């Protein structure tokens, strides 16, 4: 049941002062303005977050929760952008595009990983922000941990030189492509466009600009033994691609209620052949332009054995 692609533990950051980030609205077409007061919005987001944690833990997923009580990090609820973990004990820390997102990095998270899991090394790319470079983790890259491919949409959130460096360090093959939405806007993060499970892949092939590259991406996904579930641009707008496969008591796909409502019965049927669907209700958090996958920083590390007295 367990899978290299589907971690059994995640890190989540509880947002006490949630709001849509003004510094990222310029290139994140998924952001929407909330119609409620800032206080009410923050309270709703907090309740949605706690409900998501409860649902994940109820499904048998280990959830490490850290509180963010500051007011300078509106996107802290999306920690998958600033670090990632990898089998063999490897951790990457990433440079962020928006200046206020750089404040999301917190070393108490890394210390927890070192304490509870086997960490061999931490490769910190964040200093490259001073050179104007960014690579926003598993937002910018959708990683096939089995096939060792880093699917990456061209954007200002994924510097090509830094992507090559990451792929060399972590043994991935970069697969880069251009993607645009129906309004001809560049897709800013790859993980809104696609999500890779153990036996299937969610992706909107129509949003890949170059037809030849579109065919290559589909072929690579199929070569790794996955059924390609081709999403529509409308489904992507409902965050149907922003999902993460996890291992709890069963293997499951965590996605938002918005995303699940956008999927067709035939698509759901294919997914349910290998996983159980776990919808999380987070409509307020989604106004910030990210969904369930963005909220979950998967832990692909081996846990340390607990010492007994």
UniProtKB/TrEMBL annotation:
It holds the Pfam family DDAH_eukar. InterPro entries: Amdntrnsf_FN0238. NCBIfam families: citrull_CtlX (NF046062). This is Amidinotransferase. It comes from Leisingera aquaemixtae. The lineage of its organism: Bacteria, Pseudomonadati, Pseudomonadota, Alphaproteobacteria, Rhodobacterales.
């Amino acid at each position: 049941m367990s899978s290299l692609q589907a971690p059994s533990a995640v890190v989540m950051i509880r947002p006490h002062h949630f709001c849509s980030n003004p510094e990222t609205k310029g290139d994140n077409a998924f952001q929407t303005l909330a119609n409620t007061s800032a206080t009410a919005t923050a309270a709703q987001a907090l309740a949605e977050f706690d409900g998501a944690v409860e649902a994940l833990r109820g499904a048998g997923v280990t959830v490490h929760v850290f509180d963010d009580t500051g007011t300078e990090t509106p996107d802290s609820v999306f920690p998958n952008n600033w670090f990632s973990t990898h089998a063999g004990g490897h951790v990457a820390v990433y440079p962020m595009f928006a200046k206020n997102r750089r404040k999301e990095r917190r070393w108490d998270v890394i210390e927890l990983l070192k304490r509870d899991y086997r960490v061999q090394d931490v490769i910190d790319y964040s200093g490259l922000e001073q050179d104007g470079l960014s690579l926003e983790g598993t937002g910018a890259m959708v990683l096939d941990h089995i096939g060792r491919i880093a699917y990456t949409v061209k954007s200002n959130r994924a510097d090509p030189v830094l992507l090559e460096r990451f792929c060399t360090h972590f043994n991935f093959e970069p697969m880069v492509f251009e993607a645009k939405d129906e309004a001809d806007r560049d897709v800013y993060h790859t993980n809104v466009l696609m999500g890779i499970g153990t036996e299937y892949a969610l992706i909107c092939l129509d949003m890949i600009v170059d037809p030849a590259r579109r065919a290559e991406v589909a072929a690579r996904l199929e070569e790794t033994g996955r059924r390609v579930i081709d999403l529509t641009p409308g489904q992507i707008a409902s965050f149907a691609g922003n999902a993460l496969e996890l291992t709890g008591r069963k293997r499951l796909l965590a996605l938002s209620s918005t995303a699940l409502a956008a999927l067709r019965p035939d698509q759901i049927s294919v997914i349910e052949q290998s996983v159980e669907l776990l919808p999380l209700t987070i409509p307020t958090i989604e106004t910030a332009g990210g969904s369930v996958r963005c909220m979950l920083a998967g832990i692909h590390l081996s846990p340390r054995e607990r010492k007994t007295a």
